[in-house]
């Protein structure tokens, strides 16, 4: 019986050690790196970050992207999940198609949308065929920040709605059908059933999906680079530039700490706002 | 009734098209021949079917090596995250032990942080440890991304296998290890394989950490990112296609497990 007391610790030890070395340690190191220089403790790197020409744009752009993309994805995924529940034939095939983007990297997604939206791309060809433009037009340069922003939003929605969908569909599978049937018997409309039954019961899944998606959305970077190069500054892109082109690890770390703080803030926010009281858990 | 039904199916078809058409178009861009890229206005069908652009892309100095590095990093990530995560998952599923909640918290905490960004400070330590600019170093960071996921999913897999089966094996004289190897493992194996494939995809697609931690030993994503601005369009499209195709196949392979995995990884 003694072996059973030790065994679980033996089993989790490797992963704990690994996460300590490659998650907790670099976490502490990022903070340390961003807060110190040769003379010791300093806020200079943060001051340099905040004073950088691109900082404000990067901050605003990143928040704007998250604020537009994440709600749209939640709504789209909820709609898609509802559509799937009614589908009988071919559900597996449709599900597979809808989850294909799950395997597409943000860089590849950026390249896909580049093919569509570039000067001589398919969008412009379609507009040309409709007689709306008469020559290739650029949408993705720093001169057209609004269309560039929408191009990034499109690419992000195309790529990352699938993960929200998967979590919601999995969550819907755990919701007992009886509640919905009962509401139906009592004459609730489909919309009432959706808002009064499905949504509240789905809250834990929505919380997971939103947390995961928001944290990843604040990390947005490769899509932006693929579509607009450096014409659309975002926080993680700036971190990359400081690390690579400017070779300044401390300012890059300051950016990393900022992104982490924002992510943590978003997680705490969702935990509080979408809290499920223990007595309501299934 | 029928009109509603029609709208409903049209909606489903439109969402399918929304996902598939862009992939089709980048494929046309990649295999439609060199002229196709500069063709204006574009046609929805390739002018000529030739894999010349993709072939050319794969022949370019550095691409083959980057591709190999990507496969290697993803394979290492797959092995490491399952080897470290599955035992932890088994412990979570079968034992009640002190510190269990702390461990779960650690796993959940990884979700609240953008882990790839942690590659930034790691460059300094990696240079010191000789791991900088190696595929193994990249795989280590990718494992940090995939491991929490592997632990949670395998825990739910093991929890789904009745404890009684294992206990019956003990009664018949199996040791704990034998019972695990002969009874539990075969039942959990398909799910674990799906988890492994998902870890592969996570690594295959990761851009930031791979770009930060390598200079010469680029993975495909890191390589594409650095040459992005100076490469011609058909090169970028070929690169995008080469990145997408394996993942699409892999998602197809694990589609049955996708929902089971996330449904329980939710909790």
What does this structure look like?
The complex is a heterodimer of chains A (282) and B (267). Chain A has 282 residues and is mainly α. Chain A has two domains: 1-42, no CATH class; 54-280, MetI-like fold (Orthogonal Bundle), CATH 1.10.3720. Chain A contains 13 helices and two strands; from the N terminus they run αββαααααααααααα. The mean pLDDT of chain A is 87. With 267 residues, chain B is mainly α. The mean pLDDT of chain B is 85. Classes of the chains: A mainly alpha (282), B mainly alpha (267).
Largest interface: A-B, 93 and 95 residues
The low-confidence parts of chain B are none
What CATH architecture label of the largest domain in chain A applies?
Orthogonal Bundle
Total domains of chain B: 2
Beta fraction of the residues of chain B? Answer: under 5%
CATH top level of the largest domain in chain A?
Mainly Alpha
Q: Level of helix content of chain A?
A: over 70%
Question: Outline of chain B, from the CA principal axes?
Answer: globular
Based on the structure given, which CATH architecture of the largest domain in chain B is correct? Orthogonal Bundle
Work out the number of β strands of chain B: 0
Largest β-sheet summary of chain B? none
- Helix count of chain A equals 13
User: Kindly, what is the distance between the CA atoms of the first and last residues of chain B, rounded to a whole number of angstroms?
Assistant: 38 Å
As for the number of domains of chain A, it is 2
Shape type of chain A = globular
Strand order in the sheet with the most strands of chain A: 1-2
Give me the secondary-structure category of chain A: mainly alpha
Order of helices and strands of chain B: HHHHHHHHHHHHH
Features:
heterodimer; A: 282 residues; MetI-like fold; two-stranded antiparallel ribbon; 13 helices; 2 strands; 75% helix; globular; B: mainly alpha; 79% helix; 0% strand
């Amino acid at each position: 019986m003694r072996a059973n007391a030790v065994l679980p610790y033996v089993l989790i030890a490797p992963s704990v050690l690994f996460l300590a070395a490659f998650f907790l340690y670099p976490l502490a190191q990022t903070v340390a790196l961003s807060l110190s220089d040769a003379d010791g403790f300093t806020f200079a790197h943060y001051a340099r970050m905040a004073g950088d020409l691109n900082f404000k744009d990067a901050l605003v752009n990143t928040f704007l992207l998250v604020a537009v993309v994440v709600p749209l994805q939640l709504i789209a995924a909820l709609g898609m999940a509802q559509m799937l529940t009614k589908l009988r034939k071919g559900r597996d095939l449709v599900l597979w198609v809808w989850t294909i983007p799950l395997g597409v990297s943000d860089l590849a997604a950026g390249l896909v949308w580049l093919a569509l939206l570039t000067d001589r791309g398919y969008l412009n060809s379609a507009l040309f065929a409709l007689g709306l433009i008469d020559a290739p037009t650029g949408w993705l340069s720093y001169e057209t920040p609004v269309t560039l922003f929408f191009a990034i939003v499109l690419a992000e929605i195309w790529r990352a709605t699938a993960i929200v969908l998967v979590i919601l569909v999995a969550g819907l599978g755990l919701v007992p059908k009886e509640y919905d049937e009962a509401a139906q018997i009592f004459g609730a409309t489909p919309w009432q059933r959706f808002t009064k039954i499905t949504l509240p019961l789905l809250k834990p899944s929505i919380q997971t999906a939103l947390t995961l998606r928001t944290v990843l959305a604040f990390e947005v970077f490769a899509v932006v680079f693929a579509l607009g190069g450096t014409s659309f500054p975002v926080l993680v892109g700036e971190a990359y530039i400081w690390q690579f082109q400017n070779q300044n690890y401390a300012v890059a770390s300051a950016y990393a700490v900022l992104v982490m703080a924002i992510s943590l803030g978003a997680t705490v926010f969702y935990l509080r706002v979408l809290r499920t009281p223990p007595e309501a858990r299934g | 009734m029928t009109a509603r039904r029609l709208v409903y199916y049209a909606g489903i078809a439109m969402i399918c098209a929304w996902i598939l058409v862009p992939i089709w178009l980048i494929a046309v861009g990649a295999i439609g021949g060199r002229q196709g890229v500069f063709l204006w206005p574009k046609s929805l069908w390739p002018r000529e079917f030739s894999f010349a652009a993709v072939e050319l892309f794969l022949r370019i100095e550095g691409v083959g090596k980057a591709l190999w590095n990507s496969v290697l990093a993803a394979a290492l990530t797959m092995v490491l995250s399952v080897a470290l995560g599955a035992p932890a998952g088994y412990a979570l599923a079968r034992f009640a032990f002190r510190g269990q909640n702390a461990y779960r918290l650690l796993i959940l905490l990884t979700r609240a942080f953008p882990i790839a960004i942690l590659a930034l400070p790691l460059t300094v330590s990696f240079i010191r440890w000789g791991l900088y600019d190696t595929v193994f170093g990249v795989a280590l960071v990718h494992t940090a991304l995939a491991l929490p996921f592997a632990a949670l999913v395998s825990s739910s897999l093991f929890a789904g296998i009745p404890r009684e089966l294992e206990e019956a094996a003990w009664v018949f004289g199996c040791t704990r290890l034998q019972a695990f190897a002969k009874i539990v493992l075969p039942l959990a194996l398909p799910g674990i394989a799906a988890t492994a494939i998902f870890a592969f995809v996570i690594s295959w697609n990761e851009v930031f950490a791979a770009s930060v931690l390598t200079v010469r030993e680029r993975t495909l994503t890191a390589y594409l990112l650095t040459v992005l601005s100076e490469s011609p369009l058909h090169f970028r499209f070929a690169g995008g296609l080469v990145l997408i195709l394996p993942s699409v196949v892999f998602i197809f392979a694990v589609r049955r497990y996708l929902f089971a995995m996330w449904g329980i990884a939710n909790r």
